[in-house]
């Protein structure tokens, strides 16, 4: 695992410390890695929605019902 040196603003550093102090995470590194994992997952979800929207805009109409679209979206978002 590579090591990095990063700086935080005071409010962000205090928040990180509070999370570690509450025993939610064992270290700032663990917390930062978890935040990055969450952001990466969220980006995948955003990209999926963006792709669906672009496809829909380019095709004009869909044969899927709103319930089918909603169910498919929920399945994708919940992994």
TrEMBL record:
Q: Where is this region: Disordered?
A: 57-79
SUPFAM superfamilies cross-referenced by the UniProt entry? Ribbon-helix-helix (SSF47598)
Lineage at the top is: Bacteria, Pseudomonadati, Bacteroidota, Flavobacteriia, Flavobacteriales
Which Pfam families does the UniProt entry name for this protein?
ParD_antitoxin (PF03693)
> Which ranges are annotated Polar residues under compositional bias?
59-79
Q: What is this protein called?
A: CopG family transcriptional regulator
Instruction: Identify the InterPro entries for this entry.
Output: ParD, ParD_sf, Ribbon_hlx_hlx
**What is the species listed in this Swiss-Prot or TrEMBL entry?**
Winogradskyella litoriviva
Q: Origin, by domain of life?
A: Bacteria
Keywords from UniProt, A to Z, are: Toxin-antitoxin system
């Amino acid at each position: 695992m590579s090591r990095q040196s990063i700086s935080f603003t005071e409010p962000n550093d205090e928040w990180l410390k509070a999370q570690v102090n509450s025993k939610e995470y064992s270290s700032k590194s663990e917390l930062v890695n978890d935040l990055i994992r969450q952001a990466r997952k969220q980006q995948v979800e955003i990209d999926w929605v963006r792709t669906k929207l672009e496809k829909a805009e380019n095709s004009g109409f869909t044969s899927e019902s709103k319930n089918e679209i909603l169910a498919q979206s929920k399945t994708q978002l919940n992994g």
